[in-house]
Amino acid sequence: MEKDQLFILDKWIKSYLNEKKTLNLAKNTILNYKRVLDSFYGFYALKDEENCINSIYDINREFILEYLNNLGNKSVNTKNLHITVIKSFLSYISEHNKDNIDLTAKLKGLSAKNVKSESESLSEYESELLEKYLQEKRYKKNFLNIRNRLLVKLLYYTGIRASELLSIKLEDITPLEEEGVYKIYIMGKGNKYRYVYIPVDLITDELMFLQEHFLEDETLHTKNPQKYIAVTQKGRVMHRAELYSMLDKLYSKLYIKKRGVHILRHTFGKRMVKKNVNLSTIKELMGHENIQTTMIYARSDEKGMIEAVL
C-alpha cells in the first residue's frame, strides 16, 4: 500500500468535516462525526501496516464489516452511528473525487440489527395477581376506577395495542349472545381492521356503568359524542402517556416490577400459545402482518421443556 494513502484519507476527512461545519451542523454532531472518523482512520492505518488494502478507493463492504467487528461489544445504536457517518463520508468522497469512483454501491442496506429477544411478559404469579385484582368485586364504584378496570381488562384479555384501545368507541362493542362474548371492532396498524373477542361476564358491569355515565354527565355527553371508552372525566380521549401512567401505578400497587402497556399484549400472546391455540388464530387476533412475529410467543421456556419430557 502506498504510504501517501493515509495522507489522502486524512485530507478527505478534514474536507468532509469542514463541509459539515460550513453547513452549521451542531457542535456535538460534528464531534461525533470526528470521533467516528478518527476511529475509522486508526483502523485504516492498522490495515496499512498489514498491507491489506492498496488504496482508499478500494474500501468495500467487507472492509467496513471488519471495521465494525473490530469495535467489539458496542451497542446497536453505536454501530449504526458509525455506519451512518462512514456511509456519508464515503458518499462525499464518491461525489468529489476526480475519477468518479463510487464507494457507496456496495454499502446499500448495511445496518446493525438488534438480536430478537424474548418479549417481556407477566410471569404466572404476576398474572395471578392482576387477575385477582380485576375480578375483585369490592372496590369504589367511581368513574375512574371502573374506566381503568375496563381498559386493563381489554388490554389483558384481548392483547390489543395501546393505540387500538384508545380508538375504541361504545358502538364498536357488540354482544354475541349465543356465543357469550363481545365482538369488538379494532382499527389496527395501517388502517387494517379486525375483530377481537372477550367474554361477556368480564366487562358487562363496566360497560353498563359507562353507558349510564355518558348519558347522565353533561360534560361527557357534549365533549365525547362518539363515546370513546378511554375518556377522561373532562370528556377528552386519554393520551397514551396517561394510559402508561395509569398502568404503572397499578403495577406498583400490585408489586409487579415491570412497566408498559405492551407487556399485557405479550402476556396475551404467550397465554394463547399455552392454551394450544392455533398460531394462525393468534396471528389474526393480535393483528400481526406476518406469522413470524406470532412465532415469538411459541418459543418454549425451561418449565415448558421440562414438562414436555416428563
UniProtKB/TrEMBL annotation:
Record Pfam families: Phage_integrase
Keywords: DNA integration, DNA recombination, DNA-binding, Plasmid
Annotated InterPro entries: CB, DNA_brk_join_enz, Integrase-like_cat_sf, Integrase_catalytic, Integrase_recombinase_N, Tyrosine_recombinase_XerCD
Domain of life: Bacteria
GO molecular function, one term: DNA binding
SUPFAM superfamilies for the chain: DNA breaking-rejoining enzymes
Family: Belongs to the 'phage' integrase family.
Protein name (record): Site-specific integrase
Species assigned in the record: Sulfurimonas paralvinellae
